Amino acid sequence: MTDPDTGRPIVAELGRPETAEETWARKDTARRARRQHQTAFNLVLALIASFGIVLFLVAVVARPESTVDRDVDYRQVASQADVAGVTLAAPPLPRTYSANRADFTDKTADGVRIWTVGFLTPDKQYVGLHQGIDANPTWVANQLDQHAATGTRSIGGTKWTVYDRRDEGRDAGNQAYSLVATFGRSTVVLAGTADDASFRTIASGVAEQLATS
Q1: What are phi and psi of 198, to 5 degrees?
Q2: Residues 139, 120: contact at Cβ < 8 Å?
Q3: HEC string of the chain?
Q4: Maximum CA pair distance of the chain?
């Protein structure tokens, strides 16, 4: 319906034509409503995109280290390493023990060649074997985070220096307990979270292999 005098549409709610000011106010309100709706829509899209990125990073970037569960034939790796004049520590252990890492580094930052094996014990604790060839005191100290020895013990007919940090709890990390011994040109550091029995088993195997090589 239009006003017969002005020809302008009559607004039902008003019962008369809108004034210019009312028309502008109505359109401005509609524009603001559209902008608010668009802003909310854009926010939802941004949140969805961010969530997708997070899922991608979790799935691809932040995945756990695959070496945790894999089983490495450390004895085979040791036999294939070309290290003249030195026997790499790869003692035969009970089948309840396994390794998730075995590698040889030709030279570390300390200038020492190092053979590394990561052992998992029957109760799923960790013992890292680090064999430094022609090791220097700096390398040994770095393996032990500069901590002082707490005693000695004889295992497998070999004297091992003990670094016991078990009373430090979680602060000790993977170096709660360490054993160090020297066999000719090799210095062996055993460090981890295992109990005495597991350390004794590994240390005995290392001593038997290297002391007679």
Answers
A1: -70, -40
A2: no
A3: CECCCCCCEEECCCCEECCHHHHHHHHHHHHHHHHHHHHHHHHHHHHHHHHHHHHHHHHHHCCCCHHHCCCCCHHHHHHHCCCCCCCCCCCCCCCCCEEEEEEEECCCCCCCEEEEEEEECCCCCEEEEEEEECCCHHHHHHHCCCCCCCEEEEECCEEEEEEECHHHHHHHHHHCEEEEEEECCEEEEEEECCCHHHHHHHHHHHHHHHHCC
A4: 118
As a whole number of angstroms, the distance between CA 61 and CA 158 comes to 44
Bridge partners of 127?
Answer: 119, 192
Half-sphere exposure of 97 (CA within 13 A, CB side): 23
Among residues 153, 151, 135, 154, which one has the least CA distance to residue 143?
A: 135
Which of 4-18, 30-44, 57-71, 83-97 has the weakest average pLDDT?
57-71
Of 210, 209, 133, 146, which Cα lies nearest the Cα of 178? 146
- Evaluate if pTM is beyond 0.70: no
Mean pLDDT to the nearest integer, 189-200: 97
